[in-house]
């Protein structure tokens, strides 16, 4: 009989993933992992803000007549 490692739910036809979690627990664990990664990204973003940015030519601003000849 299959038994979920996280919630302890068990049953004859209960499907578990490779980590031994039922579908509802695997969804919760994946969401928790995503939130942790998002929090880590928020901590890194302030460090990246002071970096100088280069100007980017937008596709709409590009004029073939003004392009340098190669």
Report a brief summary of the structure:
By secondary structure, the protein is mainly alpha-helical. The protein is built from one helix and two strands; from the N terminus they run ββα.
Which keywords apply here?
2 strands, 1 helix, two-stranded antiparallel ribbon, 70 residues
Please tell me about this protein's structure:
The chain is mostly helical. The chain has one domain (2-66). It has one helix and two strands. A two-stranded antiparallel sheet has the order 1-2.
Low-confidence regions: none
Shape label: elongated
The share of residues in helices is 25-40%
Strand content: 5-15%
Major β-sheet annotation:
2 strands, antiparallel
SSE map:
Layout: E1 2-3, E2 10-11, H1 23-48
